């Protein structure tokens, strides 16, 4: 590295000493041209091609109109260029998400005016979660959106568990229509650590020692109960004998 700096310094100082330019023939300028070119033409990083990630918005036809212009009565009389501008071919990701969310909601809603039932909330969260999953496949280090996706998944789990408890037929229909694979949570889940294992072993040892210390007292109580039961039976037998 030091030698390269020395050579470059001589090349830059060559015109001042020899009175000629770097590209000229005087002052040793021609000899330092390859070094300058080598220093400037550094290697560029190779860009990797992005993988084609399938999207849940691919099934939307590009000729479909946007949500805000689909029910406009004058839309059928406009020019083809205007229709193309108002279609999903020129739409953004946000506008496509509106159409996809509306399609999922239409599958599970109870009535045309239903906008806030548990099934509708599950459909809206499902569209969000699938969008987050596609985004994280392209940008796996985006921790903010990963956190939002996990929060949406937890919210959807709570809604589905409530539906499964209260209206099982609706729960089955929702999972079937939205293509959701619901897995039952474990009855008890705890992260096993070294501290927890040591504490558990210590508690078990203490419990066994206490049980050994209380064993004679329990045996004594058991013998007393047996003696009382035997005495009560004898009294009952004596009463029956006197009655006869």
Automatic annotation (TrEMBL):
Xref: PROSITE patterns: PROKAR_LIPOPROTEIN
SUPFAM superfamilies per UniProt: S15/NS1 RNA-binding domain
Protein's cellular compartments: Mitochondrion
Keyword Transit peptide: yes
Highest taxon in the source lineage: Eukaryota
Segments crossing the lipid bilayer: none
Record key words, sorted: Mitochondrion, Ribonucleoprotein, Ribosomal protein, Transit peptide
Main localization, broad class: mitochondrion
Pfam family, one: Ribosomal_S15
GO CC annotations on file: mitochondrion; ribonucleoprotein complex; ribosome
Entry's family note: Belongs to the universal ribosomal protein uS15 family.
Record protein name field: Small ribosomal subunit protein uS15m
Organism: Grus japonensis
